[in-house]
Specification:
- The chain is mainly alpha-helical.
- The protein is built from three helices and no strands.
- The chain starts with a helix and ends with a helix.
- The model has no long low-confidence stretch (mean pLDDT about 75).
Length: about 60
């Protein structure tokens, strides 16, 4: 038997927002935070942080 509350819950499903609907990030509170944000991709892609390559990939 279906109760009325279960159908009411399914009618109010909140879907994730699209990226275009996201609010802009607040400005950094400190200049050093802005520096970290700007360099994050470079640091994350640095050779020391990449996963180790297998012997097959090195020779290719």
């Amino acid at each position: 038997m279906m109760s009325s509350w279960s159908t009411a819950m399914t009618e109010n499903i909140k879907l994730p927002r699209k990226l275009s609907e996201e609010q802009q990030a607040p400005p950094p509170r400190r200049p050093s935070h802005a520096n970290v944000i700007e360099n994050l991709d470079r640091w994350a892609n640095s050779p020391g942080l990449q996963p180790p390559k297998s012997a097959d990939e090195k020779s290719a």
